Predict the 3D structure of the following.
Amino acid sequence: MKLKLTMLIVAALAIAACEQKSNDSAAAADVMLETDEQRYSYGLGMLIGERVLKQYDAIDYDLLIAGMKAQHQNQETQITLEQATEALNKHMESMFAEQSAANKARGEEFLAANADKEGVSVTDSGLQYSVISTGDGPKPAATDQVTVHYRGTLIDGTEFDSSYSRGEPTSFRLNEVIPGWTEGVQLMNVGSKYRFVIPYDLAYGERGAGGAIGPFETLVFEVELIEIGS
């Protein structure tokens, strides 16, 4: 998994801004923010830490600061920028592999346990579903436009998306979403509400989808089919 050098530098800045050693915490609390320049510098550290840091694991803080200072002040560095990029890419690939293996194992365990629950059906593709309530309307075809309410979570219950939270249903063509949705919603009559457990290969696959949905992630959706459009 390759990252652009600018992304790597931003990541380093984020970790430098936020990954403080415990014995630095008292000093951080005493930071003086009396000027616009001081507030700008501190605020930049906060924003980078919030938006980037959470993607990364622990590092050697002293080495990171040494590398940052040397590069910023045009001093001689211990390695080249090309070597730095290679090292960071290698570390990110290792993190990705570890996360992938963990997510895949947790998903398989969850799917196995869920399949044994009363009321759960499993299709040939591996999609799991249970009926929360049944409607008496028609069923959609894969090419139909549908309107639904839904809530999506990871298997630990973390919500990553919800039309209920936004206060309005959403519409889309059924063959333009993840395979688990395309297959699952076709099982539903209008007016029904189902719970789907979707294996990673019927969801966002080996790469995931941004920060909220990691690689090899099994997903859980509650879906209410409101209507079928043209």
